[in-house]
Design brief:
By secondary structure, the protein is of the alpha+beta class. Helices cover 36% and strands 17% of the residues. InterPro entries: TAT_signal.
Length: 66
């Protein structure tokens, strides 16, 4: 049986892992637990609104959304 410390460490790692993925995880296909769901991209002047984030065309290319 695992020790109490091992269980607490694994629980902490499981809770912190999504936060360490960074904001780019919000734009990944299937974000929010819905597989195959693509982010919503709306043009706004020279910028784009993607799932509530303001991004540039360069940001979209970097994230692979362009």
């Amino acid at each position: 049986m695992p020790s109490r410390r091992a269980i607490l460490a694994s629980l902490a790692a499981a809770t912190v892992a999504p936060a360490l993925a960074g904001p780019a995880a919000a734009f990944a296909p299937g974000a929010g637990g819905f597989p195959g769901l693509l982010p919503e991209i709306r043009p706004w002047g020279k910028f784009f609104i993607v799932n509530g984030w303001v991004l540039t065309a360069n940001d979209l290319e970097t994230l692979g959304l362009a």
